[in-house]
Amino acid sequence: MAQIRGTAGYNLGSQNRFGGTGRDDATNDPSPLDAIREQTSKIEDWLDTMADPVKPYLPAIGRFLIVVTFLEDALRILTQWNDQLTYLHDYQKIPWGLTHLFLLVNVIAMTISSILVIARKYSEYAVGGLIGVVITQALGYGLIFDLNFFLRNLSVMGGLLMVLSDSWVRKRFAPAGLPQIDEKDRKMYFQLAGRVLLIFLFIGFVFAGKWNIGRVLVSCIGLVACVMVVVGFKAKWSAVMLVVILSVFNLIVNNFWTLHPHHPQKDFAKYDFFQILSIVGGLLLLVNMGPGQFSVDEKKKVY
Asked: Is the pLDDT of residue 194 over 60?
């Protein structure tokens, strides 16, 4: 009876009556996508091996790099206090007194929140404080409609969300009157949001500046890596690629240390340099944590 229900009597198995290969053998040939996955897996294994000595320090390095732009900004405000007051009063029309309060609150918030992020203490409050600084500075300095500033700070916020995900451990979170939410579930959503926001800096890079063959090549490679980061396909490998591209770009383009102290672009180059360092820090946290549950990489483990 088993043979009647099976394929034994009907020559429907892997071996047919004409001596050719059956469908099972034909489908064993690797597809191009499988070949790509195999090669990228080898690259990921090699990167994991190379990164073994620094892996224990990646979270600390990532958190420090994320907040370094805020520490540099706080120092800049203190060293250029009078210039900052003049700009806010004369150009942004903020009354005297409020200008002093605005700068003082920003310096205190950036310094304390950055220290808390590095120490991994009260991360929710620290991240909230730094996001508040980003928003208030956009309004105070009149940069809310500056597209480049907007995209860069979206990426910085993405890095801060990665800090928040990195700080959470598996526990229960139950606001009054709401169903219980596992800390792991919150981490999933914030990892996804952080991944998506991190790539906006590169979008700003693609649409800014003059085009040439090198820029087109780097943009194409970077955009592919950005898409892979967003969907979570080979996310660690893609994040490492973006770290390399952004680091090289940062050293070549934003080399503020080569400019004369009174060069009009020196402050802008320094600001851009430290902002890119912050986004590199967020990508390093992504390399350390992985893309999270909402990703192609995790779904492949399930299926």
From this structure: yes
Q: How many CA atoms lie within 13 A of 130 on its CB side?
A: 34
Lowest-confidence segment of 3-17, 61-75, 135-149 by average pLDDT: 3-17
**The pair of three-digit structure tokens given for residue 240, joined into one six-digit string:** 């490492």
Which residue do the tokens 């902002």 mark?
275
Cα gap 155→176, rounded to integer Å: 32
User: Roughly how many angstroms between the first and final C-alpha of the chain, as a whole number?
Assistant: 33
Question: Which contiguous run of DSSP H or E holds residue 182?
Answer: strand 181-182
Give me the helix-helix angle, 81-90 and 58-79, nearest 10°: 70
The pTM (predicted TM-score) of the whole model is 0.74
pLDDT digits 0-9 by tens, 90-138: 988 899 989 999 999 999 999 999 999 998 888 899 999 999 999 999 8
How far, in Å, CA of 225 to CA of 263, rounded? Answer: 35
CB 114 within 8 A of CB 70: yes
DSSP 181: E
Q: Are 152 and 205 in contact (CB under 8 A)?
A: no
Cross-strand pairs, 172: 182
Query: What torsion do the CA atoms of 40, 41, 47, 53 make, to the nearest 10 degrees?
Result: 170
Q: Is 92 helix (H, G, I), strand (E, B) or coil?
A: coil
Please name which of 261, 246, 237, 260 lies closest in space to residue 46, comparing C-alpha atoms: 237
Q: Is residue 133 within 8 Å of 72, Cβ to Cβ?
A: no
Task: List Cβ neighbours of 71 (8 Å cut-off, separation of 6 or more).
Answer: 110, 111, 114
Q: Output the DSSP codes for 145-179.
A: T-HHHHHHHHHHHHHHHHHHHHH--S-EE--TTS-
CB atoms within 10 A of CB 128: 15
